[in-house]
Amino acid sequence: xxxxxxxxxxxxxxxxxxxxxxxxxxxxxxxxxxxxxxxxxxxxxxxxxxxxxxxxxxxxxxxxxxxxxxxxxxxxxxxxxxxxxxxxxxxxxxxxxxxxxxxxxxxxxxxxxxxxxxxxxxxxxxxxxxxxxxxxxxxxxxxxxxxxxxxxxxxxxxxxxxxxxxxxxxxxxxxxxxxxxxxxxxxxxxxxxxxxxxxxxxxxxxxxxxxxxxxxxxxxxxxxxxxxxxxxxxxxxxxxxxxxxxx
Length: 247
Fold this sequence. Notes:
38% strand, 12 strands
């Protein structure tokens, strides 16, 4: 009977083995992440929800202190005015407001930034009009994003002035930049443009051809077949411009 009880105990005991002890280095990193989040939320309350903190490295003295105990932590970054982005080194302070704070060491953080960015749901050809069904919003890391991300809010603001076109061929699934889209040109190469020419009391409306593309407000070259002359003019509307100089 005792032998049966012993064998039963051997079968049951593994189920009650304690789990692995927490990794001291991960415990320290978790404490630092929590302190860094509190620091970001206090300093950048509106932007903090778009940031994620990763702990890349701790100084040896900070690692040892945090592995042995779990003191209240505070991030100290005196003189930092710019929004932290990417690798950021900060000082770690331990203590309390009543007992005072003392330096424990330093931490090298990686502050990742995220935003809602528009992504094509299919391949879009250059100059193709952008419709809402051809785009979707996704939460994307923008820490090292090249250029200005095209957010849904930025897209709506740009479309308030009219239709938007693809500036170049846009791949499906690639987050868009602000420079990937543009409004329609007020004039494209070869388009007919009526140029208003005024000198003193003389005003002429001269039919021309655009020698280069441009938006409203851009200065482009126009050629008049009637006068066989090239002009520089500022586009005032689609197919309309004002003379600046004769070339």
